Amino acid sequence: MSFTSSSHVYAAFLYYVTDPSLFHDLKSTAWYFRVSQIPIVLSATQPLDRTLAIIHPASQYTQFGPSVSTFCVIRSKEFSTAGKMSGSQAYYMISNASLEQELQSKSAFEILGHFLGVPVATKCSRLDYAAVVCIDAEWWMKEPKPTTELGIAELMEKSMHPAVHAENFLSGIQVAHARVIEYAHLKNNFPGAGDPENFHFGKTKFVTLEEAKQVLIRTFAQQNEDASEIDLQPIIVVGHAVENDFDHLQDAFGVDLRSYGSIVKVVDTQVMAQELDIQGPRGPAIGLKDLLAHFNVEIPDLHTAGNDAAATVMAAVLLTLKRYIYPNVSGPPPAVIQGRNI
């Protein structure tokens, strides 16, 4: 079996060591994960089938995975505990790092198509347990530019045949909008600024900076209870012109979302539009409002975090499915199909 960490593939074995002298510098009886001759201490002392264990690298060994809090799932079998390591017993482990590497060669259309009923989408069963999420933040445009809003949208309906205008997927997008209490009194008033009072996909919640931080952590460090072979729930992040989004969230909330090792792909709807030759009025870099207009969709009060998050996931769905729900249409699709207006 193999385990992928970063860009390297290692042979992976799990041992229960009753005689620490078998390994150099090991001090106690414990479970050890051995990767390319590097033993790594597991926190669980008696893992059971499908037990979620946290890997803690011993200080004298090379760090394993993207962070100390790397998760893994162990399929437990019988171990030899009679004073020797059971070297013949290999344990299969799949990490988000290996999934991320597998998806590097896959296009955004292939990956999102996996969730949207596209028959030729990439065949990767591990994607079944992934979440498709958009995070959007808005901030006051005057220094020190504090973050005032947070929007999160998630594609909830997956693996169904797309309906007319993909309405089954679009109506199944779950959206949350939060305003940061400490800065809720700050409101941009320049032309084109969003209106935090007008969230159109639910009810706005008021949260503290710390509560907003915890929401982000729960979203990106979610234990996957449904899968038997995957660690933290893999996340497909969808954004529109996403170059600096992660850095901004880290500056605003002190959370580096990339450090959890759960993000396996970042999808940019602006790039997807360019690949379909959908351009904006001033060039190839199309804005979110114009991209939605291409599909006859109008969402008022963009630049409100919750509305932007919802709009971005909608755009990702429509871009992915355009050739299937609007066949033989090279330009903007019709607004009415089978008597249904989008």
UniProtKB/TrEMBL annotation:
Record-level Gene Ontology MF annotations: nucleic acid binding
Alphabetized SUPFAM superfamilies for the sequence: Ribonuclease H-like (SSF53098)
Protein name per UniProt: Gfd2/YDR514C-like C-terminal domain-containing protein
InterPro entries associated with the record: Gfd2/YDR514C-like (IPR040151), Gfd2/YDR514C-like_C (IPR048519), RNaseH-like_sf (IPR012337), RNaseH_sf (IPR036397)
Pfam families: DEDDh_C
Gfd2/YDR514C-like C-terminal domain residues: 132-317
Record-level GO cellular component terms: nucleus
